[in-house]
Amino acid sequence: VKVRVDINRCEGTGYCEAINDHVFALTDQGVAEVLIPDDDTRLKACAADLREAESLCPTGAITVIGD
Ligand code: SF4
Prior knowledge:
By secondary structure, the protein is α+β, with helices and mostly antiparallel strands. About 30% of the residues lie in helices and about 20% in strands. It contains three helices and four strands; from the N terminus they run βαββααβ. It has helices at about 15-20, 40-45, 45-55, and strands spanning about 1-5, 25, 30-35, 60-65. The strands form two sheets. The protein has a two-stranded antiparallel ribbon with strand order 1-4. The longest helix is centred in the last third of the chain and has 10 residues, at about 45-55. The protein is globular. The protein starts with a strand and ends with a strand. Bound molecules: iron/sulfur cluster. Iron/sulfur cluster (SF4) binds near residues 57 and 59. Iron/sulfur cluster binds near residues 11, 15 and 58.
């Protein structure tokens, strides 16, 4: 599983961080970053959260790749 945040689309609402703050965090620049590396088993373990964040992000900035 891989997670991408398009920082050009992110508006810093923090919804993703509220869903799972082990995966997403807002930077000092006010955009979300992904804290866990690609294909780390911890991403697969919280796949439901990733999908929720992808669907709830109001700007469509989050893309989840793989399953
Ligand atoms: S939910 Fe979307 S817009 Fe909000 S901080 Fe996360 S990536 Fe950015």
